[in-house]
């Protein structure tokens, strides 16, 4: 659905996006994760033809956004952080105006979308009277009117209260489940991405440092938690016998390549250790993200990490 | 499709209260000028001038004379102000408010968007000038009996016309005033395509107009007048000349068409290269 090929963007002498290549497949809920200023919004800007790439290509449904914007964006909807409207006009007028830039829209379609987002009955009121939540729903409505296949959400929960955030997240799940949309969600909120996305890319200072399934991110480091009566002695034995390569004092060991957890369990029991816990440690996305952010990865290692996790 | 999108642009433009600022101020200014003219001794000077030239003042103290006199100064000073206010807003205000980013998430080209906005600005300019002409005449009819048209600009213009001829010239002058309003709007529109605030676009356009006006009125630059934009912007005055210098009108119209095309093309080029970020 989306293909970015070696996309670069510089603002003056400052690089904002560096050599970004990634792919969002049809049906994905894809999270673009990164700190503020990592290049997420610039990437989305280039995807929508609002920011010109310094080099590289952004394709949507096979159409180059820079050279064939009309076709590339024909079935795309977008929602931005703090969506802006013509506050002095009604919600209905705003929908008519914004959808009009895509093409003629039947009033029945507007009513259908307003109903879907739960704004029916309020569409005649001026947008300046809307709450944050209602504005977010109107933003969603304007994105849905052209019947998109791809929805791009740039920090969609920023500025919402906890209730609004919960509602927006539930809506994003509905968009995927009920309408079957492909979603590209940019966020700096790890929990949000963890709750919603199936695949992610992580940006750090304009560079992609990870791309892959969320499950891969959680298991990117293969740690096993071992609870025994004498953890240091157990580690010494397992290391000597080549079953474990590294350990952490809080009870974590990293298994040697090809060693199953069951082999470690058997060896500990055979050696007379009292084993009261042994399980594969699933990393939280936060742990994984922080490990990526510790130091900016050089381009070569970024590429290899991305390759490994595809 | 273009017409539907244009209708939407007009909804946006005429849905804003500030769009009506020009209409309101024009009306107020016309009322004030006409009342002062009617109820003070201000008209005596005009009467003396007419009578010294062999005309009866009472034949020409009319709605046409009053409206032409009033709108003359409004067209000089306030019309550029309100034209540039709207022109500067058309793109720059949407960029400032963030709605431009919402629009450009859609498959509409930047040039088409600018064309829609320019036409909406031109429609505003036409309506503003039309209302200026009609309200001037309507208010004049409340204060004076119908009669001929007298137009006087010291050192430049002395025109005396029958009521019928005067009405045609008054209407023609306002038609050409529309060209002036549209061009000023187009100049501010161009500045609004740059990455500047709407107020800055308006101020830049007004500065350009005022600078032209100042240069044009420096006596030593009299020979250079045709090189200044304001010289051509005031082509509407030519409709009060006797006879009308149609070649001069045609020349100014052609040049203003060129200015408008240039302002639009330059604005589109700059806007087309801009990165639009939140």
Descriptive report:
The complex is a heterodimer of chains A (310) and B (278). By secondary structure, chain A is of the alpha/beta class. Among the domains of chain A are: 2-75 and 148-217, 3-Layer(aba) Sandwich (Rossmann fold), CATH 3.40.50; 222-281, 2-Layer Sandwich (Alpha-Beta Plaits). Helices cover 37% and strands 27% of the residues of chain A. Chain A has helices spanning 40-47, 69-72, 91-100, 107-117, 132-144, 162-179, 190-196, 214-218, 231-240, 261-270, 285-293, 299-308; strands at residues 2-11, 14-24, 29-34, 55-60, 63-64, 76-79, 150-154, 182-187, 199-204, 207-213, 223-228, 244-248, 252-255, 275-281. A six-stranded mixed beta sheet of chain A has the order 6-7-8-3-9-10, with helices on both faces. Chain A is elongated, with a radius of gyration of 24 Å. The two termini of chain A are 16 Å apart. The model of chain A is unreliable at 296-310 (pLDDT under 50). By secondary structure, chain B is mostly helical. Chain B has one domain (2-272). Helix content of chain B is 73%, strand content 4%. Chain B has eleven helices and two strands, in the order αααααααββαααα. In chain B, strands 1-2 form a two-stranded antiparallel ribbon. In chain B, β1 (149-153) and β2 (157-161) form a beta hairpin. Chain B is elongated. The model of chain B has no long low-confidence stretch (mean pLDDT 92). The A-B interface holds A 11, 41-42, 45, 48-52, 69-74, 76-78, 80-86, 88-89, 93, 96-98, 100-104, 142-143, 146, 152 and B 1, 4-5, 8, 11-12, 15-17, 97-99, 101-109, 113, 273, 275-278.
């Amino acid at each position: 659905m989306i293909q970015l090929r070696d996309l670069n963007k510089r603002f003056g002498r400052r690089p904002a996006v560096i050599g970004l290549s990634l792919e969002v497949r049809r049906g994905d809920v894809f999270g673009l994760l990164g700190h503020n200023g990592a290049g997420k919004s610039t990437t989305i800007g280039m995807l929508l033809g609002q920011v010109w790439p310094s080099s590289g290509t952004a394709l949507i449904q096979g159409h180059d956004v820079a050279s064939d914007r009309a076709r590339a964006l024909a079935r795309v909807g977008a929602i931005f952080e703090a969506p802006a409207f013509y506050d002095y006009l009604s919600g209905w007028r705003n929908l008519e105006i914004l959808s009009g830039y895509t093409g003629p829209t039947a009033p029945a379609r507007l009513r259908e979308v307003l109903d879907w987002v739960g704004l029916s009955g309020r569409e005649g009121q001026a947008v300046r009277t809307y709450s944050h939540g209602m504005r977010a729903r109107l933003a969603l409505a304007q994105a849905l009117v052209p019947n998109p296949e791809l929805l791009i959400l740039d920090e969609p929960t920023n500025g919402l209260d906890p209730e609004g955030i919960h509602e927006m997240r539930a809506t994003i799940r509905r968009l995927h489940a009920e309408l079957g949309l492909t979603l590209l969600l940019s966020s700096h909120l790890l929990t949000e991405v963890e709750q919603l996305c199936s695949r992610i890319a992580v940006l750090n200072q304009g560079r992609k440092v990870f791309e892959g399934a969320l499950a891969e991110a959680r298991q990117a480091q293969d740690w096993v938690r071992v609870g025994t009566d004498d953890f240091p002695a157990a580690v010494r034995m397992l290391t000597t016998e080549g079953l474990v390569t590294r350990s952490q004092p809080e009870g974590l060991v990293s298994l040697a390549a090809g060693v199953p957890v069951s082999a470690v369990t058997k060896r500990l029991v055979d050696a007379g250790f009292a084993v009261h816990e042994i399980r594969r440690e699933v990393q939280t996305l936060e742990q994984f993200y922080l490990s990526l952010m510790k130091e900016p990865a050089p381009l070569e290692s970024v590429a290899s990490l991305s390759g490994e996790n595809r | 499709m273009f017409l539907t999108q244009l209708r939407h642009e007009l909804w946006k433009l005429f849905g804003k209260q500030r769009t009506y600022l020009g209409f309101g101020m024009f009306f107020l200014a016309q009322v004030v000028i006409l009342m002062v003219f009617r109820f003070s001794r201000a008209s005596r000077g005009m009467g003396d001038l007419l009578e010294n030239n062999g005309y009866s003042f009472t034949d020409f103290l009319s709605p046409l004379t009053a409206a032409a006199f009033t709108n003359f100064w409004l067209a000089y000073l306030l019309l550029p102000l309100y034209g540039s206010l709207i022109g500067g807003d058309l793109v720059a205000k949407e960029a400032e408010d963030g709605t431009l980013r919402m629009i450009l998430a859609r498959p509409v080209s930047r040039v088409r968007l600018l064309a829609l906005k320019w036409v909406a600005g031109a429609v505003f300019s036409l309506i503003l000038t039309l209302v200026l002409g009609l309200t001037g005449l309507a208010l004049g009819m409340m204060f004076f009996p119908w009669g001929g048209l007298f137009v006087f600009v010291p050192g430049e213009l002395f025109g005396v016309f029958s009521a019928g001829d005067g009405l045609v010239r008054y209407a023609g002058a306002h038609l050409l005033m529309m060209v002036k309003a549209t061009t000023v709007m187009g100049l501010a529109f161009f500045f609004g395509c740059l990455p500047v605030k709407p107020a800055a676009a308006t101020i830049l356009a007004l500065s350009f107009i005022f600078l032209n006006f100042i240069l044009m009125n420096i006596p030593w630059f009299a020979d250079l007048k045709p090189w200044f934009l304001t010289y051509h912007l005031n082509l509407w005055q030519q409709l009060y000349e006797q006879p009308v210098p149609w070649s001069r009108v045609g020349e100014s119209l052609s040049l203003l068409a060129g200015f408008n095309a240039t302002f639009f093309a330059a604005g589109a080029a700059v806007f087309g290269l801009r990165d639009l970020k939140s």
